Amino acid sequence: MAFLSCFALLTVSLAALSNCQMMHSVDRMMEAVAKQEILADQLEEYLLEEEKRLKAISLSITRLRAAGHSKPTTTTELEKEMSHPVRVLRILTGIYIEVETVKDLLESTHISADMNETFDFLPTHKDYIDVVQAVVRLQEVYSDKADFTKAQGDNSKDVLTAHEVFEIGRLCVDEKNLYSALTNFQRAKKMFEEMNNTEKAMESLDFLAYLMHEQGNSDYALNYTYSLLEYYKDKDESTINRLQENVAIYIDSLGGESEAAARVILKNPYQNFPEALYTNYKELCRGEHVQALDEDVQPLQCHLHTNNNHPLLVLSPAKREDLNLKTGLSFFHGVLTDKEISLLQKMAIEHFEDSQLVPDDDIKNDPDIELIDELSYADNRIRSSNTGWVDDEEDSMVLAISRRISAILSLTLDSAESFQVLSYGIGGFYLPHFDWGYGDHPFEGFAGNRIATWIFYLNDIKKGGATVFPDIGATVWPEKGGAAFWRNLHKNGTGDVSTLHAACPVLEGYKWVSNKWFHTVGNELSWPCDTNPDQ
Predict the structure, then answer these.
(1) Domain residue limits at 361
(2) Is position 484 within any domain?
(3) Are 213 and 243 in contact (CB under 8 A)?
């Protein structure tokens, strides 16, 4: 019965024979003989694909070795190589794309633990987004000075290609940055047209039509889409269908056929203006003079400051330059030596991490914000740099630096913070903010509010990277070994809103600074308070 029940299924499907013993079935044996040839064909196809994959991996090895051999081998050489935004973009993007290519080529079972460890040191998708956003930020703040589609001065090497500009625009779309997406697709379209690359120019125009509609300019979107329909009419039916659907949407948003017909003929090219971002911020970053609310009317002076013949300053007085009398904003020249600068940098690097922000209640309750702990979070839309903290107790030279600042300002170190050392790469910045805090206990673990800020500049910067004060119209340009200082609080203890300040994006090179904050407790006698609300 078992024999009969097995072969009764032959008329239904030969596949069912797999449940029977092959040696007892001529049909199964015939099928096996025939399948050998099929298997051979499949293996041959697999082998061809595997050869292609291995050849692609071999090409990746060649590219990685060539890139590694052509790059600088010392930190100084690398800083010089990576001093220009376009170079940084290309280096990081090149490594990221190659790494992703390798990961796609390798099956997960072929990625060793050592290889995974190496991947941890290589650029990720976040790093790729960060470097593109840095270039975009420079474009937004510095305008023509950061138009990397054109040669800057005699530098014709570090110029973006049309394809690079196109990809920047596409990432801006993904990140919902419509202004910069528009700017880059306008540039890409023009560059492709100059290359006679009509296909890519039309692809750029397709993005521009979408962006125009998103910004509420459906007349421009409709005009662009009619041009796209003319180009694609004999090429791609699915694209034609999509564009025709868009036409209907744009006509509807313009109020119907007659209104759309009147507005679709454009009189002028579209002017893409950025959203206003903090009055005077961008202008000061570009080195322009602005009319500020609290600008000084009294003449500013320079002093040799000994602080009433303090022992640390008698033989080496501080060279002080007034920048704003209302806030006490001053610049002290030549305060640090090269040896001291190197020490602060070396000690900070060991503790580097993403620069963080102090969350308010809204941030703490925002489900889209990931808090590092209850006291901090990172957001590179507001701030982008690396931070390392250096305590006075870690080295006698560090303590000597703090005592020098204390002598200059007559402020105690007992309630002062450690040195916050920051490294800003290309596009590194910090949007306008206050150093003082709100409430009865604004800074957890510290006594009182931040009464004063001291910033050391640890290197000279090629371009950009100024510290600007939008409300008083002041700009501090980095000078190696120098320091900026200002008072954060009024004499009555309230925060001074005119101390709003920002770190402008680094346009070329790297920027190193070190902050020292002093708090109110312990400084009541040296900096007495006043109940006058106007003080």
Answers:
(1) 301-519
(2) yes
(3) no
**Total Cβ atoms within 10 A of residue 523:** 22
Q: With contact defined as beta carbons under 8 Å apart, do 243 and 228 qualify?
A: yes
Q: Check residue 416 and report its DSSP letter.
A: P
CB 131 within 8 A of CB 155: no
Chain position carrying tokens 């209850």:
374
Q: Using the 8-state DSSP alphabet, how is residue 488 labeled?
A: -
Q: Across-strand partners of 463?
A: 508
Whole-angstrom distance, CA of residue 535 vs CA of residue 526: 16
Strand 501-503 and strand 467-469: pairing? antiparallel
Distance CA 440, CA 444 (A): 10
For the chain, how many structural domains are there in total?
A: 2
Residue 231 lies in a domain: no
**Type of residue found at 320:** R
Cα angle 493, 434, 358 (rounded to 5 degrees) comes to: 105
Q: State the pTM of this model.
A: 0.86
Measured between alpha carbons, how far is 2 from 8 in angstroms, rounded to an integer? Answer: 10
Closest CA to 133 of 189, 91, 174, 80: 174
Residue 416 lies in a domain: yes
**CATH number of the domain to which 479 belongs:** 2.60.120.620
Task: Name the nearest CA neighbour of 428 among 349, 484, 348, 504.
Answer: 504
Domain closes at, from 93, 113, 133: 133
Distance (Å, whole) CA 443 – CA 517: 11
Which amino acid belongs to residue 297? V
CB 361 within 8 A of CB 378: no
Tell me which of 91, 110, 133 is where a domain ends.
133
Each of the 535 residues of the chain gets a pLDDT tens digit; together they read 444 444 444 344 444 445 667 666 778 788 888 889 999 999 999 999 999 999 999 999 999 998 877 777 787 788 788 889 999 999 999 999 999 999 999 877 778 889 999 999 999 999 999 999 999 999 999 988 899 999 887 788 899 999 999 999 999 999 999 999 999 999 999 999 999 999 999 999 999 999 999 999 999 999 999 999 999 988 888 999 999 999 999 999 999 998 989 888 887 778 777 777 778 999 999 999 888 777 776 778 898 999 999 999 999 999 999 999 999 999 999 999 999 999 999 999 999 998 988 766 555 566 666 666 666 667 788 899 999 999 999 999 999 999 999 999 999 999 999 999 999 999 999 999 999 998 878 887 888 999 999 999 999 998 999 999 999 999 999 999 999 999 999 988 899 999 999 999 999 999 999 999 999 999 988 888 776 656 6
Distances from the Cα of 194 to the Cα of 162, 200, 273, angstroms: 10, 11, 24
The verdict on residue 24 lying in a domain is no
Q: Which of 531, 502, 484, 490 is nearest to 327 (CA)?
A: 490
